[in-house]
Every structure is written in structure tokens, then in C-alpha cells.
Specification:
Layout: H1 14-23, E1 31-33, E2 38-42, E3 45-48, H2 60-70, H3 77-84, E4 91-92, E5 122-123, E6 126-132, H4 145-152, E7 158-161, E8 178-180, E9 189-190
Parallel strand pairs: 4-5, 6-9
Antiparallel strand pairs: 1-2, 2-3, 6-7, 7-8
């Protein structure tokens, strides 16, 4: 934001830039600037934005623009799951009783930034991927409401993974897919970055 990201079309997907301009986005949803510090509206009321908490309430377009700004990218859902399946499906979820959890709000990462270990894979925020919500091979919609729910939404939506601080723990597993339209920001959505194995930050 300080680098003018909301005013730099070269960072944005075309539809995202159009949406950001039309909706006059300047920050994540529920953020306000009072002339001094940024605050956000949480389920506990308005609170200061903390630099060490995961950003929340951003669209796929914002997540993708941020990834472009960093020189990284959003992971595909397959990449996300391949890594997540090696971690326990625990974290800052709805019923979390860990002292480091913050009920109904994302928490700062507990591990130092210098570590390469995947942190906060589950809980805190749903993480946008770079994958469209499409059926798996040989998928056939079931009869009744469950088939209607799954089958009819497999168009123009993007997959999110990992759960959020408001997600029941019994819903979470590495293969769980959530999906929203790319412009939506009201849910507990955030970002995780990925890079190719041959990535050279000097390039």
C-alpha cells in the first residue's frame, strides 16, 4: 500500500484492476485510516492493524497483485495440498484452546521469520490459490442438494485452502476446498506466496 499498489495497474489482473477502480479500493475491506494509524473492524470491534498478523479480508485480485509486487505468485491448489498434507490439520480455528490463539481473529506467526518451515498452514485465514474451482477428473454431481451445491458453483470462482479462525476444526483437512468469486472480500481470506524451485531473487 505504501508503494502505491492500489494505483499501479501493472500489478493487477485486468478484471481486478477494473474492480479495484470501480469499487475505489484503497486497502483491505474493513480497514480505515484515521490520519495516523490504520485500524480494522474485527468481530471484537475496531482495533489497530498489527504488522505481524496475517492480512485478512482481501480479494483474489488483491492477493494476486500483492504476489506480483513481491515477485512471487499464488500457489496452485495442488501445490498447496502437496505441502499441507505433511502438516497436522491444526491451528487457530474456531474451537482453538491454545493460549496463542485469538478467538475469531487471525494471530501472528509464532515461528521466527527466518525459518523456512511452513507456518500457519491451517486456520487464521483462508488462503487464495491461483486455481479455478473446477471438478476433479471424472467428477459427477450427486443427486439432490449436495450435487446441486457442488456442481452449480464450478464456474468463475477461485479455490481457497486452509480454513480460518472461524472455521470449525472438524471441517478441516488438507484436501478441503473452499471457493469464492475473485472480487469477494467479506470472508476471512488472505494470501500465501509461492515460488518456483529454480527461482533466483537476483533475477
Amino acid at each position: 500500500m505504501a508503494d502505491g499498489g492500489y494505483h499501479r495497474p501493472e500489478l493487477w489482473l485486468s478484471d481486478g484492476w477494473g474492480t479495484a477502480q470501480r469499487e475505489r479500493w484503497e486497502a483491505p475491506l474493513y480497514w480505515e485510516h484515521d490520519g495516523g494509524d490504520w485500524t480494522l473492524l474485527s468481530l471484537d470491534g475496531r482495533r489497530p492493524v498489527r504488522d505481524d498478523e496475517p492480512v485478512v479480508h482481501i480479494s483474489h485480485y488483491e492477493a494476486d497483485a500483492y504476489a506480483h509486487w513481491t515477485g512471487f505468485r499464488l500457489p496452485t491448489e495442488q501445490e498447496w495440498e502437496a505441502v499441507a498434507v505433511t502438516h497436522p490439520a491444526t491451528g487457530n480455528l474456531l474451537e482453538c484452546d491454545d493460549l496463542e490463539c485469538s478467538p475469531l481473529h487471525p494471530t501472528p506467526a509464532s515461528a521466527p521469520k527466518a525459518t523456512v518451515e511452513l507456518r500457519q498452514c491451517f486456520g487464521d485465514v483462508w488462503e487464495w490459490t491461483g486455481s479455478s474451482y473446477l471438478p476433479y477428473p471424472r467428477f459427477r454431481a450427486a443427486e439432490g442438494a449436495i450435487g446441486e451445491y457442488n456442481g452449480k458453483f464450478m464456474s468463475n470462482q477461485i479455490v481457497l485452502r486452509g480454513g480460518a479462525c472461524v472455521t470449525p476444526a472438524d471441517h478441516i483437512r488438507a484436501s478441503y476446498r473452499n471457493f469464492f468469486y475473485p472480487h469477494q472480500r467479506w470472508m476471512f481470506s488472505g494470501v500465501r506466496l509461492a515460488r518456483d524451485l529454480d527461482f533466483d531473487p537476483a533475477d
